[in-house]
Amino acid sequence: MIKKNFIIDNIKTLFYALIIAVIIRSLIIQPFYIPSSSMEPTLLVGDRLFVTKYSYGYSKHSFPFSPPVLKERIFYTKPKKGDVVVFKTPSDNRTDYIKRLIGFPGDRIQFIDANLYINNQEVIKSLISKNDKIFCGEQTIDVYTFEENISEKKSHKSVYLKNFPLKNTDIFVVPDDHYFFLGDNRDCSKDSRFLAEVGYVHKDNLVGKAQFIFFSSNKSIGSFFAFWKWHKLIRFDRFFKKIN
Q: Which residues pair with 125 in a beta bridge?
């Protein structure tokens, strides 16, 4: 009898713990891992970060496996231009992407001579470095690093290949209830410029706002079990770094 009660009590404890974990993950905060270099230098491959789920309200994509429990977003709060946002890609409503919010509904966005324009106004960027190297997939590329002022109160780093391959684009007009996103690694990012893969992102597809990095490791160094390499493997300087 005692053994049976012990098993039942443990099952109940695990069940309650699972429910609490799902609630926290769905409504409050969720960890994410960065697998690609599309947001370098802001986010590096191997960064692990926390995303607040309540920042923009809730939709079905706030919950694991996106169950159809909500027809539209509730408690909606409009994001700010320049936010780093996790969203579900419109092409499959399943894959998580993380990019920087550049355009609001109605905005007209275009690259002209490798300069970003929003509503015919050039986004001012200042050259920081001519000699940086970053990743693009498995390759290392030489880039110019800029400080870009997306708004009067928001600036961030963006990088461009030195030959500026994407100099000019068509005009992107953001539809109602949609947003336009770019990766900070401008020439190595599948983002809203690629209409078939990503395109304009509906507000219901927003998952949450990236807040800070809680752990980071450089997988190219080797296995985590090789503790004698931890001083090179683990990026201690990125722990608890706020995401700008």
A: 148
Largest Cα–Cα distance in the chain? 78
Whose tokens are 């900070």? That residue is 184
Per residue in 81-131, pLDDT (tens digit) is 999 999 999 999 999 999 999 999 999 999 999 999 999 999 999 999 999
Instruction: Check residue 138 and give its pLDDT.
Output: 85
Q: 36, 37, 38, 59: which one is catalytic?
A: 38
How far apart are alpha carbons 44 and 22 in whole angstroms? Answer: 27
User: Can 99 be counted among the known catalytic residues?
Assistant: yes
Contacts 24+ apart (CB under 8 A), 50-53: 50/210, 50/211, 50/212, 50/214, 51/86, 51/207, 51/208, 51/209, 51/210, 51/211, 52/28, 52/208, 52/209, 52/211, 53/25, 53/26, 53/27, 53/28, 53/29, 53/207, 53/208
Separation of alpha carbons 192 and 151, rounded Å: 19
Strand order in the sheet with 139-151: 125-136, 139-151, 154-161
Check whether domain 2-242 has CATH 2.10.109.10, yes or no: yes
Question: How far apart are the two ends of the chain, measured CA to CA in Å?
Answer: 57
**Which one from 60, 99, 125, 203 is the annotated catalytic residue?**
99
Region for 207 from its dihedrals, namely left if φ exceeds 0, alpha if ψ lies in -120 to 50, beta otherwise: alpha
- In angstroms and rounded to an integer, the radius of gyration of the C-alpha atoms of the chain is 20
